[in-house]
Amino acid sequence: MSMMTRIEQALSQPFMVADSATAPPRLMAAMRHAVFPGGARIRPQLCIAVAKACGEDAPDLTNAAAASIELLHCASLVHDDMPCFDDADTRRGQTTVHKQFGEPLALLTGDALIVLAYQTLARAGARHPHRLARLLMTVCEGTGTPDGIVAGQAWECEPRVQLGRYQRAKTGALFVASTCAGAQAAGTDPEPWRRLGDALGEAYQVADDIRDVMGADQLGKPVGQDAQHGRPSTAADLGLLGAVDYFRKLIQSAVQSVPACASREAMQQLVLHESERLLPQSACDQIAVQHAASQRRAVA
Amino acid sequence: MSMMTRIEQALSQPFMVADSATAPPRLMAAMRHAVFPGGARIRPQLCIAVAKACGEDAPDLTNAAAASIELLHCASLVHDDMPCFDDADTRRGQTTVHKQFGEPLALLTGDALIVLAYQTLARAGARHPHRLARLLMTVCEGTGTPDGIVAGQAWECEPRVQLGRYQRAKTGALFVASTCAGAQAAGTDPEPWRRLGDALGEAYQVADDIRDVMGADQLGKPVGQDAQHGRPSTAADLGLLGAVDYFRKLIQSAVQSVPACASREAMQQLVLHESERLLPQSACDQIAVQHAASQRRAVA
How far B262 CA sits from the closest chain A CA (Å)? Predict the structure, then answer.
């Protein structure tokens, strides 16, 4: 079974239980709209890849961990798109949940997806009681307070923000949860995998900042949001060229951090493939050309 | 230690971990605002009382279960108060979270409290691995889909609603989770305690409907909201007198449902005390007098 098929099956599973005859049909439709069709599913990919690298022996638990993290990611997208944050009309090329189903259902869809994530972990965890608590802690740490994605988003509501802390929490935290949960689902120590999640997560956020400024987002999101909402941004802080340099350093660090294991090379390929998807080489070249041209204009 | 002191301590515990130096200060303040000072804390009271009745042997786990359920309840209040639902200015006699901290932080506060609830369970559950998964399932079932409080709230967004299903989910589900989690935290079968939570939860919702119509709410909430938002309501369905009758039957059923145990009488007293708090006898008398007067006017 391909990685993507495995992920989509793992994500469908929780809906079979949640979507009983007694569930409110519009809520269930909104929840599905938020999760399917998905984006690159990079977090569950990472989680499963790490579990395999750690000698996966409980694929049902890996699947539950991977699905729970993607459900939490989808929940955060639904809430971040709402009018009080981005007020976005589109996401992944389709209508956002609040535009399609209204604000009240969008609010509840996010809440219900968060709970569904933990329900998914609980169900698989019943068969692996000695792995459940630590796995659950890892997923909670990636999501909540003090340093998870919800806390990351909340930094946008603070008068003073450290860019690094904001980005590590807003995006990095759930990447760290993805790699660490993969190791824990396989019953192994998560620590050697923390740096991979951390570096890739920060790279992801930096690429997002760059695309937001370049106005050439292929991920189906509106652009120019960071400046419009006065949000901290690497592109604003370091300039486009500086941000691209920093992105490359982070990808290098992610590649080098992969611990020695049978699938080290495959894992490094996954990181490089993701890097090209996030910020294609052609876009980097374009930024360099534009920068050189503006330097020439400044000299002339 | 008194029951209320125990509950407040159990609720303070998660904040000590969540509120590290790296957490966004305004988010943490908003989360505390949502949880302290509390209301009657009836759900954690129920949870702890049932655990004791079941021969509690792991008070740390009971405390975590009780706290997690109250945190989920507080999260639901924060989101229900937001402009896209009740647009309430006050709650428990103080400013609502979105009025005090703004909509973005209110949205994130609800999310962060949901995650904190599961984090609290995970931390205590690590010491009781063979109870964690089932406890977690119970708490998730009370909260999410298909029949938890989020699903209950979502019934308000459906074109057709069954009043009973709506109320059981909207309020009853977390009461059922409270009694069942109490039994499970003590390592016993939750089923004998389901009816108590179910009946008390429905009674709670019926009392809420009655108070909303009477315009005499002492719980610090605005009144007349059900009619204004076209929400299903027992008071609208059965009339005030019919709703009061139904409320009394539910309390009777809750009292009778308490299984044989050493603390049966104390538990029944807790139910009757709660009943009086929810809908004082004086209010019932007032409704009966008003009804008789309107009957006389109709005859004349």
Answer: 31
CB within 8 Å: A102 and B157: yes
- The dihedrals phi and psi of B159, each to the nearest 5 degrees, come to -70, -35
- pLDDT tens digits, residue range A175-204? 999 999 999 999 999 999 999 999 999 999
Q: What is the pLDDT of residue A44?
A: 98
Tens-digit pLDDT profile for residues B76-119: 999 999 999 999 999 988 999 999 999 999 999 999 999 999 99
Of B232 and B276, which is predicted with more confidence? B276
User: What is the distance in angstroms between the Cα of A54 and the nearest Cα belonging to chain B?
Assistant: 22
Kindly tell me the burial class for residue B31, based on how many C-beta atoms sit within 10 Å of its own C-beta (0-12, 13-18, 19 or more). buried
Q: Judge whether A62 and A185 are in contact, CB under 8 Å.
A: yes
The predicted-structure confidence for A274-294, as pLDDT tens digits, reads as follows 999 999 988 888 888 888 888
Domain span including residue A201: 3-285
Q: What burial class does residue A286 get, using C-beta atoms within 10 Å of its C-beta: 0-12 exposed, 13-18 middle, 19+ buried? A: middle
> What average pLDDT does chain A have?
92
**Number of neighbours of residue A233 by Cβ within 10 angstroms:** 23
pLDDT score, position A221 = 60
What CA–CA distance (Å, rounded) separates A154 from B110?
12
Cα–Cα distance measured from residue A241 to residue A264, given in angstroms and rounded to the nearest whole number: 30
What percentage of residues in chain A have a pLDDT greater than 70?
97
Q: What is the mean pLDDT of residues B166-180?
A: 94
Total domains in the fold of chain A: 1
User: From the CA of B157, how many Å to the nearest CA of chain A?
Assistant: 7
Q: Flag whether A294 is in a domain.
A: no
Of B101, B148, B156, the CB nearest to A115: B148
Instruction: Give A90's strand partners.
Output: A95
A170 lies in some domain: yes
Q: Is residue A11 in a domain?
A: yes
Whether the link from the prior residue into B37 is cis, omega within 30° of 0, is: yes
In a domain? residue A256: yes
E-only strand ranges, chain B? 90-91, 94-95
List Cα–Cα distances, B166 to A231, B161, B233, in angstroms.
40, 7, 10
How wide is the angle at C-alpha A67 spanned by C-alphas B174 and B84, nearest 5°?
A: 50
pLDDT at B63 over 60: yes
Q: Which of B102, B111, B134 sits opposite A114 (nearest CB)?
A: B111
Q: What is the CATH number of the domain that holds A57?
A: 1.10.600.10
Question: Nearest CB to A19: which of B103, B107, B146?
Answer: B146
How many C-beta atoms surround the C-beta of residue A164 within 10 A? 13
Q: Which bin fits A167, alpha (ψ -120 to 50), beta or left (φ > 0)?
A: alpha
